[in-house]
Here is the input.
Amino acid sequence: MSVLSRSKNKLSVKEEVRATLCYLISNICTKAFGFITIPLYTHILTTLEYGYLNTYNAWVSLLSIVMGLSLSSAIYGKVKVERKERDMFQSSVMSLSLLAAMIITVIVLLAYVMIYGHIDVMVLLALVQGYGTFVINYVLQEWVIDNRYIAHSIVSVGMITIPIVVTCLIIKHVFVSRKYLSVIVPRAVVIIILMISFIIIITARGKCIYDKGIWAWSLKYCIPVVFHSLSLMVMLQADRIMISSLYGYDESGIYSFIYNVTLVIGVLIAALENTWKTWFFKNYEISDRKFIQNRCRLFITVAILGVCVYIFIAPDLVKVLAAEEYQTRLFLIGPIAFAYIISFFYDFLVYVEYKKEATKNISKASIIAAVVNIALNTLIIPRYGGVGAACTTCVAYVVQFVMHILVVNKLDRGLYPLKLFIPFLITSVGVLILFLFTFNITVIRYIIAFLSTIIMLTLLYKNRKILT
Here is the structure.
């Protein structure tokens, strides 16, 4: 580690520790609330309604990328810009995103009218909610970069918990014939309120509606990220959409339920990613490669151990949380958890590409992975349904990882050599195989979970200096 990096004072170290804990707690809260609602939704909603709900959410996630042209990623290129200049930059970018969203909304609605002869209110709501999600993510991204973890946590937790509370109050009394609306509408209202508030604040602070230079740079930097983000969305959502179209919402609902069960894994992954992102953008130029690699190894090891703890006790948790009709694909927890781990490998690579402004290379690598995913889905899902979809997702994430590591090793040769990740890839495959073989042996699963917990806590304690 460089002299400058070593000179970091105790105050900044304590601040980083507090930020890590805050991100972890907020992620636990947001994911826990989502997890707790699983038995509520699965016992009140039919598999048909649950499938529709998750398909709607998939389209909102997709629209959140397209509506804002992925302009939230522009903040990565302006991390070290002075506050006043960044405020002006944000204001101009926000007006650009709003213009793009209006144009896309008109195009989508006109196309829908031409095809179906009318405007569907749910389509319009999805468009608005998609753009609102983009605006919120834009602000949250900047707060992570600036280490404003308290504001980030308050908004993250609030936008999840408030709609859930409202849903619990109205789900048995409002939208009785279409109960999924009791979930969709409260969340959409909260997102729209936050969207309007953030747009007003950003515009008032920056006081810049149009700047030719900012618009040109932002479009050049971010348009490739649209295709990159869409590729990621394809690997996350295309399988659910294909299952819905081929097998109906019942099969899609079961598959989506298994995905939602693994949200607990996202708690650890998201907290580690946010901590890594904040640290990386501040220390990339001032830390030597060996220190970065050691920190990377520690983060991945913690992630794998955390996944082990959860997946080996998850089958028993699911049996408590959901009705029997949702429990026919519990073994898919393993492959989906494996995909989470491989996607975490990608997090270390992509921020180097953002830092080097190599967004075109980001999109090329991700598009190849998405094409592989679609091709495999087309061949396998018609025959094997959700089982095939989980397997194709794993393959797609591996392909994505390989493509991105090839790009990064051209941008910064030696920073992330393939040999750094191979032991973790082999370990992840071993964990998946072990899970599948011990799936019906409860005692062994709990022993593995207990040992993984002990090892993880010991590792964190011994390496606490590297983490900070």
In short: Residues 258 and 368 are 26 Å apart (CA to CA).
